Amino acid sequence: MKADELLASLSAFSLRPLSQEPVPQPVGGHIINQAAAIRLGKAFFWDMQVGSDGQTACASCHFAAGADDRRVNTLHPGLDGVFSSGGVTGPGQTFTPSIITSDDRIGSQGMHRAVFQSISTDPTVAAEQCRRLPAAPFHTERLVGFRHTPSVIGSVFYRDQFWGGEGNNVFNGLNNWGFTGNNTEGSITQVLNASLASQAVGPPHNFTEMSCYGRNLNGPNSLASKLLARQPLQFQRVAVDDSVLGPLANPSGPGLRCGDAPCSYGGLIREAFGDELAARAEDVFSMIWGEALLAYEATLVPDQTRFDDFLAGNLHALTPQQQRGLRQFVGKGGCITCHTGAMLTDATVGVYASAGPLNRDGGDQGFHNTGVRPSHEDPARGDLGIFGGVPNSVSGSPFDLGAFKTPTLRNVKLTAPYFHTGGYPTLADVVDFYDRGGDFANPELSKDIKPRSLNRNDREALVDFLANALTDCRVEKQRAPFDHPELSIPNRAPLPAVGAGGLGNCP
């Protein structure tokens, strides 16, 4: 098949350049100055002061193409509590990339196990007073999450967030549960198309990820009171040519400066949300936090790939090998069934609007049981939720048990290891997994998971397409809008501040 014939055939699969896909817009928010909200959101996202330890930012788990590439203390022992993969026999050790065949999984490390006591009254101190309570299986090491960290890049297109969709598409201003039965806190707002805001309020309140147990987001002695008393990014340098924060960067040291004085979060909030909300910021901080992070993360759109160029009509954007891989992707490989649309995932707002709320199995759109592990190990979309009786599933289909959100394949080369378990270290391993029809014949296994009979050349071409046609060079080179402040990362070398020009040019 010639390149022009291949391009013409793609019209049947709803494939188009991502630049032509409308970015979902929140409805009902409180932002009055979008540019200011993006500045606030970027400061929030990268500020290490957010963590109870004064060392953990949102970006601490989303720094490598929006994901996490750490290997030290990243293994969770699974339900059996036994570390048995990648040469790891206990917490705090270095994982050697390998296929995981047990119930272990790769996660991101967050807090030490501890109970919150108070916020320091010294605004130059980022760490909170917490009482450590070491316990198995991590003992004195940092806790590690039960699922592999997904990338935030392009996540604005998802209808729901997290692997199980717990980050609801309706933001209630307080937690990630929207207006489902798992929300027992009430609400202070209702913002539609705002799953990123729902997602954003989860980790800062989670004692594994960013918070000592018991720290609140709002009110006195909370994350709100802590940040409102502190200079944004006061321990981190920002490049003077940062694409968002550059005008506020301190050229002679860390922190942000507003005119001749250090910036304050109160001032940044006032500019983005207005005087009335700024005056109540301590009481409605979770709402402000969620909406600001949504505003920033919505700018992280990876729409400059070779595949986008090909879809736009440049027949030479893909090599012959990558074109062969694309033919397998939409043909014998069957990848397009779930990895569809401009974002190459059926879990988007756009696919939900066009294809409806149910997938081909009758489960929730965008969630599938692919046989990576037995369903009971992590029910995911079919989980009964934090209160043991309110399922995440909307359809109620048995196919939602053990079903996980379809991740985008954009920049997939940069976000290894793969699946919610992090159990496969390379794209070749992933292709082999799908070629053999998965690993576990769960009763809830999607009907679309079946052997594909790809030959070696087919598999190699498919890997080439995934790795090299779907990578946005700006993400790889950390160029704007994917540039960032300096960041110290526990158990990893720090990231220096990178400005809009990134680490090199893109072709």
Keywords:
6% strand; mainly alpha; two-stranded antiparallel ribbon; 2 domains; 507 residues; Cytochrome Bc1 Complex, Chain D, domain 2; globular; single chain; 13 helices; 10 strands
How would you describe what is shown here?
The protein is mainly alpha-helical. It is built from 13 helices and ten strands. Helix 2 (34-46) packs antiparallel against helix 5, helix 2 (34-46) crosses helix 7 (285-297) and helix 11 (427-435) packs across helix 12. The mean pLDDT is 97.
Outline the biggest β-sheet.
Answer: 2 strands, antiparallel
Number of strands: 10
Please identify the structural class as seen in this structure.
Answer: mainly alpha
Q: So, the CATH homologous superfamily of the largest domain?
A: Cytochrome c-like domain
Which residues sit in consecutive blocks of at least 5 with pLDDT less than 50? none
Number of domains: 2
Radius of gyration of CA atoms, rounded to a whole number: 22 Å
How would you briefly describe this protein structure?
This protein has 507 residues and is mainly α. It has helices at residues 3-9, 34-46, 195-200, 223-228, 265-273, 275-279, 285-297, 306-311, 320-330, 349-355, 427-435, 456-469, 473-476; strands spanning 75-76, 105-106, 114-118, 129-132, 257-258, 261-262, 367-368, 404-405, 487-489, 492-495. The strands form 5 sheets. The protein has a two-stranded antiparallel sheet. Strands 3-4 form a two-stranded antiparallel ribbon.
